[in-house]
Design a protein that fits this description.
The complex is a heterodimer of chains A (181) and B (365).
Chain A (H helix, E strand, L loop, with lengths): L1 E2 L2 E2 L6 H4 L4 H5 L5 H6 L2 E4 L9 H5 L27 H5 L5 E5 L6 E7 L11 E5 L5 E11 L9 E7 L8 E3 L10
Antiparallel strand pairs in A: 1-2, 3-4, 4-5, 5-8, 6-7, 6-9, 7-8
Chain B lengths: L1 E7 L3 H12 L4 E4 L28 H14 L3 E4 L3 E6 L3 E6 L2 E12 L3 E3 L12 E3 H10 L7 E5 L3 H12 L3 E7 L8 H8 L5 E3 L1 E7 L6 E6 L12 E3 L3 E4 L3 E3 L2 H5 L4 E4 L4 E4 L12 E3 L9 H18 L5 H18 L6 H18 L1
Parallel strand pairs in B: 1-2, 1-6, 2-3, 6-19, 8-15, 9-10, 9-15, 10-11
Antiparallel strand pairs in B: 4-5, 5-6, 7-16, 12-13, 13-14, 17-18
Classes of the chains: A alpha+beta (181), B alpha/beta (365).
Chain lengths: 181, 365
């Protein structure tokens, strides 16, 4: 089904294929007012598992503290600054930041990226959707490496605006890490 | 040499138990057959779930390093690495084999945290070189820095299958597919989504039919399964792989417990035969405690908590801490444990532990 998220199943696909459905993603889509104000975190976390680091990582109180460690995260998008701390903190690599206000044609997408070599600033990267299909190209805006070498690097990519909610992984052109799949 | 507690198995459960006991005044020996303490943590490069205040977001290798450093810095703990426990004797001694030979050590109490072993799968060609357990693939890559091959079929979509697929890709190895016999992915959805967006297909209701190759794996045939898990003729697909990685589940490693005469029971939800034990992790043989996968297949966060409960209970049993302090601290740990297990994905293990609890209560009542 063609949607804001690209060509994804309408529902019930997550547990049979690993691909979140349009229905799953609609449930975590930031409201229009939040998307218009600047960068905002998108928590693609759909399953209750015991996990709370996103709530701890947020310095702005936007992601509420968990009363039950199994709860799904709850975010106050108007408090979210899109800083990306939660992207690096999420053990499930399920959080992204999207900025649709970056320029008239382009958006910024922050993605967790645990592959070496890390891309360089301004390098052209290939973008993939949630099913791993190549959907376009972007350019690296910045790379946030984190405090220690075990931290999850976060790569901010400039991408065509239409890919803001489509692209969720990146690869280097002719990268060994991606060959074959 | 007599110790107050002998811990067999230096993984997350054993080390947590050893530390908790030693911090409460118990003289402990830890025995592990590997050269390095940490158990499976030494190869777990993914970030843990759970509470931030308890290592969530920290990679397994780092948790293992912290536990190891704490154990090595604890003067009440003696560590025997490269040492295998061969057998338990009724005089409370343990026959051990180290590079320097075979000897006996005696303990007032024991904590068996011996972990688990991988399940094998039956299919033609499963004896060919190139068919690996997921643990071996992880050891090769993450401990020794060796790629197991160039192209992999992963069998099983539990967390181990998903995580190892991701790590294979990080190492630059192709993963052609993950096949899963059940209609649903077994592991966490976040792990599944993480490998799916790398382009690795996860095929539910699929399994391996056979492996091909004369002297080693040169390919595999997968097929679709019907509702009774029988392969459907005509759905076969040949895939080009030189590695078949089996992540088809674990079963508790209870040999020493059997041999020590601990009462065991079959609990499918916990992976097979497990010891019968109470809320303090003590088996029906007084002074023999269990924790971790040997007590039921789960994961490292709960294993560490169970280890701590066992270590604390040993300290109380030996009179190192007053009863009320033990109960207070134990209840906090037990509450954390039940909170970790309270989610919808833990319903299977909850059923398993309820079975054990009912057995214990039945025997006492």
């Amino acid at each position: 089904m063609k949607s804001l998220y690209g060509d994804l199943p309408e529902k019930d696909s997550l547990l049979s294929s690993g691909i979140p459905s349009v229905q799953d993603l609609d449930g975590v889509l930031p409201p229009a007012e939040a998307r218009k104000k600047g960068p905002v975190a998108v928590l693609e976390c759909f399953q209750k598992i015991p996990c709370d680091p996103c709530g701890q990582a947020c310095k702005f109180g936007a992601i509420k503290e968990f009363s039950d460690v199994n709860d799904l995260p709850v975010i106050d998008w108007m408090r979210c600054t899109g800083c990306g701390q939660c992207v690096a903190a999420c053990p499930g690599l399920a959080i992204f930041v999207v900025d649709e206000t970056y320029s008239p044609e382009e958006c910024l997408i922050a993605m967790p990226h645990e592959f070496v070599p890390l891309p360089e600033r301004d390098q052209v990267v290939l973008l993939y959707d949630r099913a791993g299909r190549h959907v376009g190209e972007g350019a690296v805006h910045r790379v946030v490496r984190g405090k220690d070498k075990l931290a999850t690097p976060v790569v901010w990519v400039r991408a065509p605006k239409a890919l803001a909610y489509v692209a969720r992984a990146l690869g280097l052109p002719e990268s060994q890490g991606r060959s074959g799949n | 040499m007599e110790y107050e507690l002998i811990v067999v198995g230096g993984g997350p459960a054993g080390l947590s138990g050893a530390l908790k006991a030693a911090q409460n005044g118990v003289r402990v020996a830890v025995i592990d057959r590997q050269e390095e303490l940490g158990g499976q943590l030494v190869k777990q490069t993914h970030k843990f779930f759970g509470w931030s205040r308890r290592n969530a977001g920290v990679r397994g290798i780092e948790i293992g390093r912290r536990l190891r450093d704490a154990v090595l810095a604890e003067p009440r703990i003696t560590v025997f690495t490269g040492t295998e426990a061969l057998g338990y004797y009724p005089d409370n001694s343990l026959l051990i084999e180290s590079p320097s030979g075979v000897s006996r050590i005696t303990g007032k109490t024991f904590l068996f945290a011996t972990g688990a072993q991988e399940r094998m799968l039956l299919f033609p060609g499963n004896d060919l070189p190139g068919v690996y357990g997921a643990g071996a693939v992880q050891t090769l890559m993450n401990v020794y820095g060796v790629r197991p091959g160039r192209s992999v079929l992963m069998v099983g979509s539990g967390n181990i299958g998903l995580i190892v697929s991701y790590q294979l890709r990080q190492a630059g190895v192709m993963v052609r597919a993950i096949v899963e016999a059940l209609p649903q992915i077994g592991g966490y959805a976040v792990h599944a989504s993480k490998v799916r967006r790398l382009g690795i297909p996860i095929l539910t209701r699929h399994s391996i039919k056979e492996a091909h190759g004369r002297e080693y794996v040169e390919g595999a045939t997968i097929w679709e399964l019907d509702d009774k898990f029988r392969g459907i003729p005509g759905t076969e697909k040949d895939i080009d792989v030189d590695v078949i990685c089996l992540a088809t589940g674990l079963t508790p490693l209870g040999d020493l417990l059997w041999q020590a005469g601990v009462s065991m029971t079959y609990v499918p939800e916990l992976g097979g035969f497990v010891p019968i034990y109470d809320g303090n992790m003590e088996t029906e043989r007084s002074g023999i405690f269990v924790a971790g996968d040997a007590a039921g297949i789960e994961e490292a966060s709960t294993a560490m908590l169970c280890g701590e409960i066992a270590g604390l209970a040993v300290a109380a049993k030996l009179g190192k801490i007053p009863r009320h302090r033990f109960e207070e601290e134990r209840n906090v740990l037990a509450q954390e444990l039940s909170a970790l297990r309270s989610g919808p994905l833990s319903s299977k293990v909850r059923t398993g532990y309820e079975r054990i609890k009912a057995l214990v209560q039945g025997r006492r009542g």
